[in-house]
Amino acid sequence: MNREHYKYKHHQQVKRERLIMEPKGSVMSPDDTPMPRRSLGSDSGLHYGSFVNSLASLTPKAGEKPAVSPRHAYIGVAVLCYINLLNYMERYTIAGVLSTLQTFFDINDSTAGSLQTVFICSFLLLAPLFGYLGDRYNRKYIMIGGLSVWLVTSVGSSFVTKSYFWLLVLLRALVGIGEASYSTLAPTIIGDLFIGGKRSIMVCVFYIFIPVGSGLGYITGAGCATLTGDWRWGLRITPLLGVVGLILLVFLCPNPPRGAAETQGEGVTGQSSYLEDVMYLLRNKSYVLSSLGVTALAFLTGALAFWMPTFLSRAQVAQGLLSPCTKEPCDPTASLIFGAVTVVTGIVGGGLGTGLSRWFRDKVSNADPLICAAGMLGSVPCLFITIFVASASIPATYVFIFLGELLLSLNWAVLADILLYVVVPTRRATAEALQITFGHLLGDAGSPYLLGVISDAIGDSKPATHHWSFHSLKYSLLVCPFVGILGGLFFLITSLYITEDRKAVQRSLGGNHHNGKNIVQTNQ
């Protein structure tokens, strides 16, 4: 009788354990007591990202409430998207009035390119610091401080007089402080509010505002300069809107526990040094290779975003369709049209990229980097045609700009999603920061300046004419398609490793792969 009783009790215990191990909203036995919040500390003797305690400690439990309500989470994402829009508007208002600035300050192409380079350099140098702080301290407070600095320095740059160009350069560098704090930490907050399909959609919406904000930056800068007759007003609109964003950030944006989405609101904590964080990321092949692809994408988009409106204006001058700009404000048509194209391709491309990712992810496990590779490699012929057809047909040039930007826009949201699912929650801010730093350092930090230097060097080889000014910039832009090919190759190599790296993160968060399910997919 005792033996039969023992077998019955053992059978019931095994049954309870199986229920606990189920990753999809399993129901625990009433006799089971709640498990305490767990840590992803590096002192456990296990590989980083593994829990010291049992798998069941991170399994969803019946009746558990999320750390942040769904309504609050959606409002928080809306606030973050609004500020992201303003960030990229501010970044490209300078490009929208670049021809006017060159006339006002009497500067050449390489000096004009330095405005974007110093901004990106401060941005990338500070990103690792904010990544380190973001993995350890309150992310919301850090973003509030950074955004405040951004507002002050941004509006200050609009009051610089003609003899103080160096001050404009300095203030543009300080604007990078605010963007470094926000761009590093905002995606990690979204990653801690949603998982699975919802996360992909929210990340897509957030990253759609990169091209939308960039396009509106051209339109705002050029439009305000034309309406007021003063380029400075183009730099004052976004700081005014930014005050509203700061207030919304303070009162409406949540700061969820790290890893809250994957752990049903409990969150995870890390006990590791910065060096351990970096070494973990360097061993993550998908992270490293996708970051190299991001670098190529940043180089390409940074150069095109900064120089394309000026290139189009010079093309019209070379064809005799537009008079040369000799006094401010210059004709804003190229900036306005290019801005509108950027907005439309950003929305359509971002949504299309996320849609393709969700459609193929369950069918092809490495679909995301393949989509990115297709976008990069597909844009290359469009860029070549854009560069050479500009001297013959402006309408045809805009068609191929549209196609090229559409293909490039497939990547932004997909790349952000890749980082969130191949890196453990307690190291995502550091991962974002290092990707930003490396991507901008070798990407768009130097590409506007590099193309400006190449353009000036080619231009100096012959007597200066408006026609030769156009061709010198055209030849410098030929660097971009070759960088696009390189980026596509990096994404193709990423596709070889991403499946295993994603599974490693899912295992560390308690995914049960025995039955083919995992935590990251539970809320799709």
TrEMBL record:
It comes from the Eukaryota. GO terms for molecular function: transmembrane transporter activity. This is Major facilitator superfamily (MFS) profile domain-containing protein. It holds the Pfam family MFS_1. The chain crosses the membrane at residues 73-94, 114-134, 141-159, 165-189, 201-221, 233-253, 287-308, 336-357, 369-392, 398-424, 436-455, 475-498. Keywords: Membrane, Transmembrane, Transmembrane helix, Transport. Residues 76-502 form the Major facilitator superfamily (MFS) profile domain. One of its GO terms (cellular component) is membrane. Belongs to the major facilitator superfamily. Spinster (TC 2.A.1.49) family. CDD domains: MFS_spinster_like. Its main location: membrane. It is a multi-pass membrane protein. The keyword Ion transport does not apply. The keyword Transport applies. InterPro entries: MFS (IPR011701), MFS_dom (IPR020846), MFS_spinster-like (IPR044770), MFS_trans_sf (IPR036259). It comes from Monopterus albus (Swamp eel). It is found in: Membrane.
